[in-house]
Design brief:
By secondary structure, this protein is α+β, with helices and mostly antiparallel strands. The chain has 12 helices and 17 strands. Strands 1, 4, 5, 6, 7, 8, 9, 12, 13 and 14 form a 10-stranded mixed beta sheet that branches. The radius of gyration is 20 Å and the shape is globular. The structure holds coenzyme A. Coenzyme A (COA) binds next to helix 2, helix 6 and helix 7.
């Protein structure tokens, strides 16, 4: 998969930032009068990260990016492109990326923008960054791509159990330490569909949920065909199949579609043979990398990369050069299927990629606290002054209100002493 004329390019650093609170799915199910198995088994979720009024797309994106740069010792001055993929930006005009740029003290010699295409925006940023490097325009600089979102469908809606919030930051560069991606293994797909959207007047997404699942699966088949161009034999070599994961059970549906594409026939999970074949493949290639998604919920643009992080945090020396597939889907719809290759050094960074300790420290919300938080988030846009300690946010970056129509951010606790990386 490497090309002798070009150095390998791909993902060199990876980090997650998540809100400091969550609601457990069984708690939500009880309040909604739904059997908890519907959410925990039917959708496959355990917990959903919930953003408070002082945590927004800017704070999550900045925290993830700062962690990626610091953990992987990437010089901020080496960043020449900064892209934030999000469908939950904070302004109709001003990109989240330019806030991040200032808050991290990145160099002025930097191209900075936001990409939007539902859950697909960060993947557009990733492939744009790969192209930027491969074209020679980067001249040794690196790209910082951040997938950051707060997924909100509103209380008592079918989408409510598929919410979540968080950001995954990736540094893209030559000779990447984690994952190589070769341009000729990338396939794209686009079709205009109304499966999920958010009108300008609405804070909450509208979705035709079951139709969105159909659109996702069609896009998977389309993007996969574009990527592999009939080369299905690569499937037998894969170490992992990573999918966009709006909820964990979606990866199950996606993998069934993948097997149908590989074998050119429907997979009937009511027959013992197909069920056994599917289960073996799913347990080996998909299930082991879904634990972070189950604990965080839907983070829209970052969901695929959360599954990648789960894979990398478990990586072993023997995985060097093994291939993985990645499928990114954004409603509306746009999709990309690509092949990656585990970098030989990835296993040395496994511990650095593991966000488990942070996830374990989150605060568990009651339903009352969760609903109060959602109501307060609705008012936060126009609040002049917000106190982060009211929401248990004592460190990191916080949104502290909007003054003169301008959003205000503040580093807290020990982070206030060393705000830039
Ligand atoms: C995902 C979504 C469509 C589910 O909506 P819903 O109509 O409330 O839920 P369903 O009735 O389909 O049930 C969900 C799953 O739980 C299962 N289930 C229902 N009750 C159950 C129970 N008591 N025990 C175990 N499983 C149960 C269903 O069989 C179904 O699984 P399946 O799809 O594998 O058959 C909805 O949450 C949504 O619209 N989400 C936002 C859009 C989205 O995430 N789209 C994804 C593609 S981008």
């Amino acid at each position: 998969m490497t090309d002798s004329h070009h150095p390998p390019v791909g993902i060199d650093a990876l980090a997650l930032a998540c809100p400091k609170a969550f609601i457990a799915m069984d708690t939500l199910a009880e309040a909604r009068g739904v059997p908890s198995a519907k959410y925990t088994q039917g959708l496959g979720q355990e917990k959903m990260a919930i953003a408070s009024p002082v945590e927004d797309t800017v704070t999550l994106a900045t925290a993830a990016a700062r962690r990626a740069l610091e953990t992987f010792d990437v010089d901020p001055q080496s960043i020449g492109t900064l892209i934030v993929g999000t469908e939950t930006g904070v302004d109709h005009s001003k990109p989240v990326a330019v806030y991040v740029h200032e808050l991290l003290g990145l160099p002025e010699r930097c191209r900075t923008f936001e990409t939007k295409h539902a859950c697909y925006g960060a993947s557009a940023g990733l492939t744009t960054s790969l192209d930027w490097i491969a074209s020679g325009r980067a001249r040794g600089q690196k790209a910082l791509v951040i997938a950051a979102d707060i997924a909100s469908y509103g209380l008592n809606t079918p989408g409510e159990p598929t919410q979540g919030a968080g950001a995954v930051a990736m540094v893209i560069g030559e000779h990447p330490r984690l994952l190589r991606i070769h341009p000729n293994t990338i396939g794209d797909y686009t079709r205009q569909v109304m499966d999920f959207w958010r009108p300008l007047y609405s804070k909450y997404a509208l979705a035709d949920g079951h139709y969105s699942i159909e659109c996702y699966l069609e896009a998977l088949a389309g993007a996969r065909a574009a990527a592999l161009d009939g080369g299905d034999e690569v499937f037998d070599e894969l170490l992992a199949c990573l999918y966009h994961v709006p909820f964990v059970k979606m990866a199950h549906k996606a993998h069934r579609k993948e097997l149908e594409c590989v074998h050119h026939r429907p997979f009937d999970l009511d027959t013992a043979d197909d069920q056994a074949r599917f289960d073996a493949s799913y347990q080996r290639l998909v299930a082991p990398w879904l634990s972070l998604n189950a604990q965080v919920g839907n983070i829209y643009t970052g969901s695929l990369y959360l599954a990648l992080m789960d894979l990398i945090r478990q990586s072993q020396a023997s995985w060097a050069d093994r291939r993985v597939s990645l499928f990114s889907y954004g409603s509306g719809c746009g999709a990309t299927y690509m092949l990656g290759q585990i970098a030989p050094s990835a296993h040395q960074w496994a511990g650095h990629c593991d966000p488990q300790a942070d996830l374990d420290q989150r605060r568990r919300l009651s339903v009352g606290e969760y609903e109060a938080m959602i109501a307060a988030v609705e008012r936060a846009e126009r609040a002049e002054k917000l106190d982060p300690s009211d929401w248990g946010v004592l460190e990191g970056l916080a949104y502290v209100g909007t003054q003169d129509h301008q959003r205000q951010y503040r580093w807290l606790g020990r982070d206030a002493l060393t705000p830039a990386v």
